[in-house]
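Tip: read the tokens left to right.
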């Protein structure tokens, strides 16, 4: 049990939380869901070009999410 007392004015500010409900999060998640469905169909119907199209969609959606976050449409890093 700690006996250290911290004054209320010395406590850090509460971080803003939006629980991931940002444009960057929605774009990234939607893109990854679409990519996983395309990859699943490509594996189910053995068509390797379709699998690689799905991988490309995943890469583009990750890049789009990172770009949107950098532009301020995502949750801040701090």
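Filled-in amino acids:
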């Amino acid at each position: 049990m700690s006996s250290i007392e911290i004054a209320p004015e010395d406590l850090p500010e509460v971080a803003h939380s939006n629980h991931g409900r940002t444009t960057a999060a929605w774009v990234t998640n939607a893109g990854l869901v679409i990519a996983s469905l395309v990859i699943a169909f490509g594996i189910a119907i053995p068509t390797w070009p379709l699998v690689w199209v799905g991988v490309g969609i995943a890469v583009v959606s990750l890049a789009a999410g990172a770009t949107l976050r950098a532009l301020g449409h995502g949750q801040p890093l701090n």
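The chain has two helices and no strands. Residues 48-70 form the longest helix (23 residues).
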